[in-house]
């Protein structure tokens, strides 16, 4: 059950044991800029259903935006264990590894992104290939 404010326009909380409801509220709060609330919603969704890869990815993205790079990598890894087709997570995890200076791990992530990318990512693939080349020069 979704609980709205007195105007019926803003979602206040979810009185539910469904992970999807908490996940959806997390997306809503994230879109509203309510990052702490979104993080709490995604954590609750994952408590109820740890195999929800989108919640792991969204939580990772929020952690990364808050500078919690190690936590972000952990969540990206969890998401990819569940669904290895979430190729954006490889690229995002590569960025996180770069922030840590772990260029070999970053290259592995970027290569996975390039190898699994479809034509819809063609412009990104070119950029990621250039990043791989630059990182290989560093190591």
Describe the 3D structure.
- The protein has 139 residues and is mostly helical.
- 71% of the residues lie in helices and 5% in strands.
- The chain is built from seven helices and two strands, in the order E-E-H-H-H-H-H-H-H.
- A two-stranded antiparallel ribbon has the order 1-2.
- It is elongated, with a radius of gyration of 17 Å.
- The model has no long low-confidence stretch (mean pLDDT 91).
Give the integer mean of the pLDDT values.
91
Gross morphology is: elongated
Task: Report the portion of residues in β strands.
Answer: 5-15%
Helical content, roughly? over 70%
Radius of gyration: 17 Å
User: Strand sequence of the main sheet, in spatial order?
Assistant: 1-2
Low-confidence stretches: none
Features:
7 helices; two-stranded antiparallel sheet; 5% strand; mainly alpha; 139 residues
Topology:
Layout: E1 2-4, E2 11-14, H1 19-31, H2 35-48, H3 53-65, H4 69-82, H5 87-100, H6 103-116, H7 122-138
Antiparallel strand pairs: 1-2
Helix pairs in contact: 1-2, 2-3, 3-4, 4-5, 5-6, 6-7
């Amino acid at each position: 059950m979704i609980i709205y404010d007195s105007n019926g326009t803003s979602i206040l909380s979810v009185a539910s044991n469904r992970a999807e409801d908490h996940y959806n509220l997390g997306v809503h709060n994230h879109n509203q800029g309510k990052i702490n609330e979104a993080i709490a919603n995604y954590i609750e969704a994952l408590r109820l259903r740890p195999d929800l890869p989108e919640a792991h990815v969204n939580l990772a993205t929020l952690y990364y935006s808050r500078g919690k790079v190690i936590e972000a990598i952990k969540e990206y890894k969890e998401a990819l264990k569940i669904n290895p087709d979430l190729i954006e997570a490889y690229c995002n995890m590569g960025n996180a590894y770069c922030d840590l200076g772990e260029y070999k791990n970053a290259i592995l992530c970027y290569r996975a992104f390039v190898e699994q990318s479809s034509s819809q990512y063609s412009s990104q693939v070119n950029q990621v290939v250039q990043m791989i080349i630059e990182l290989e020069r560093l190591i």
